[in-house]
Amino acid sequence: MAETVNFSEGTIATSAGATGLEAHAPGNPATVSALANASGGINAGNFVEVDIDEELSRFKSDDTPLMNLMLKAKKVKVESPEVQHFMIDEPRSFVTTTAEVKAGSTPSNTFPLPLSGEESAIPRPYGTLLVKGVTGFAEDGKTTTPGKEMMLFVVGHNENGLPICRAINGPKTNPTDEYCVVPTIPIGTTCVILSNALYETQKEVDPDLIVPQAETIYLQKRGMNQVVSDYFDAQKKRIPFSKAILAEQAITNFKVRGNRTLWAGRKSKFKVNVPKMGIQSVYTTEGVRWQFKKELQHTGKWTIERLIALAKMFFTGEDVPKTSILLAGKNFLENIQTIDYSEHPEIQITTTTNPVGWKVTNIHTVFGDIELKHEPTLDRLGWSNSGALLAYDRLVHYQYTSEHSFSDRVEGEEATRTGIIVWDALALKGSCHIWIDGEGETGGSGVVFEMWEETTAPSKDGVYYFLTDCENGAKTGEIWERANSSWKMFNGDVYAN
Q1: Is the pLDDT of residue 10 over 70?
Q2: Which residues pair with 112 in a beta bridge?
């Protein structure tokens, strides 16, 4: 609803607030006449002193949780609005075979280990690999050792870049043979990367080559202006708004809109033609909603089992965080709060004040603590059924210029212009963060999970966290992937870009 009112100082448009209150005059300076127009046409000489609800004029950090997390995060000063952001993860702990290794497939005792192109360079010469699910042999090469898995030694790489390996505790043709023959290793086998094993006088080994891929982050310049006339300032004793209260309201609005941008903004760069200044660039930053590398599609009622599974996924991946906070929409938060915890006394729920200064609900699990915090911005963005599980120590606040304020006299006018300028961006570090989508809208660029609690296997391709034993061979607590109608264990291949 908008109404245009004509007064002697010009024409302004008064606009309703979120609840229909005529309390906003966007784009207009704070003059006596402008305030009269915005308040229903009260003449400048008839302002009435009233009590003011101070709570409405405070900087409410609870309204902008994500921005407050950004302000508490590690600050990185940069010299350009375009930043190469490295979402560095923990080193890979395993590789997975892409084809079967057949016993006796080569005439020698060495064999190429079939790995994907992106994994083939990870095992280095003189390294060792533990082959999960493949039973090793005793020293005679004939007797199997149940529960003791096979280990491989990396000799080098072939012309195709695949690691050449030999089995250390594999089968032998004769018990007295020094080397084992080629074993059988199924397709999709996980090989855990262990330490290297050097010969007696060796001191040189291949260096660990870590080349993370960078993602370009754009820093968005945001500003807030306020114009207060000298006459308005002189009349402030008779006006129920002082400059300080006006500034607080304006900054609160500035923070709330900025918080929405931190969540849902889209990355872009474009040119604008500025009068007297020429062509200049405008940058918009990418919201954290689109930065997640793990996304959980969730429907239905939350249970203790699902909550523990969420904590397990967050705290036990390749990237292990130290802290966690779950910023949630109102429906998601209600769903979590109404879980029946009576049968699980080991799950402790307490109210505490976290390092940011918020009073939060803390859920203690064996994997780690999860803090629950309502994020009103998610409700305003239409994500009331969703939430974001974030790590305090995995956020980066890039700043091109530090936040600063200014105060200038308006040329040709009896008024003062004040404002705030910030030029920054918020980026996620690592792959532990999880977006929990309850709207059915997959939008991230990472791996999408779904929880499954039926014994009948899912019929569509995807990645599933099983809450019960399933007919496809998955056990409770395991993550499996269905691709082209076939199943294999999913080991968390979430690559940082």
Answers
A1: no
A2: 164
**pLDDT tens digits for range 43-53:** 444 444 444 33
Q: Which residues contact 102 (CB under 8 A, 6 or more apart)?
A: 182, 184
**Residue 179 CB neighbour total at 10 angstroms:** 15
Instruction: Indicate if the pLDDT at residue 168 is higher than 60.
Output: yes
Phi, psi of 69 (to 5 degrees): -65, -40
pLDDT of residue 55: 37
Alpha carbon separation from 19 to 15, 23, 85, 161, 484 (Å, rounded): 11, 10, 40, 64, 51
Phi, psi of 253, rounded to the nearest 5 degrees: -65, -40
> Is pLDDT larger for residue 71 or for residue 372?
372
CA 245 to chain centre: 35
227 beta partners = 417
What letter would DSSP give residue 70? H
Q: If you search the block for the tokens 């018990």, which residue do you land on?
A: 175
Radius of gyration of the chain (CA): 30
395-409 sheet: strands from edge to edge: 74-77, 395-409, 415-428, 220-229
**Are 77 and 83 in contact, with CB atoms under 8 Å apart?**
no
Question: Which residue matches tokens 């245009």?
Answer: 4
Question: Looking up tokens 């192109």, which residue turns up?
Answer: 117
Distance separating alpha carbons of residues 436 and 442, to the nearest angstrom: 10
- Categorize the per-residue pLDDT at 493 as very low, low, confident or very high, splitting at 50, 70 and 90: very low
Distance from C-alpha of 134 to C-alpha of 184, rounded to nearest angstrom = 8
Helix, strand, coil percentages in the chain from 3-state DSSP, rounded to 5: 15, 35, 45
Write the pLDDT tens digit of every residue in 255-293.
888 889 999 999 999 999 988 888 999 999 999 998 988
Instruction: HSE, CB side, 13 Å, CA atoms: give it for residue 40.
Output: 4
Residue 33 CA to residue 417 CA, distance in Å, equals 17
What are the beta bridge partners of residue 452?
466
The label of the residue with tokens 């086998």 reads 189
pLDDT at 378 over 50: yes
Tell me the C-alpha distance between 83 and 119, whole Å: 28
Contacts of 192 (CB under 8 A, 6+ apart): 93, 94, 129, 130, 132
> How far apart, in whole angstroms, are the C-alpha atoms of residue 130 and residue 153?
9
Whether the CB-CB separation of 150 and 166 falls below 8 Å is answered with: no
pLDDT score, position 180: 92
Structure tokens at 395: 């956020």
Length of the chain: 497
Taking only the tens place, the pLDDT of each residue in 323-355 is 899 999 999 999 888 888 777 777 888 888 887
Beta strands in 287-386 (DSSP E): 294-297, 325-328, 348-353, 359-364, 369-374
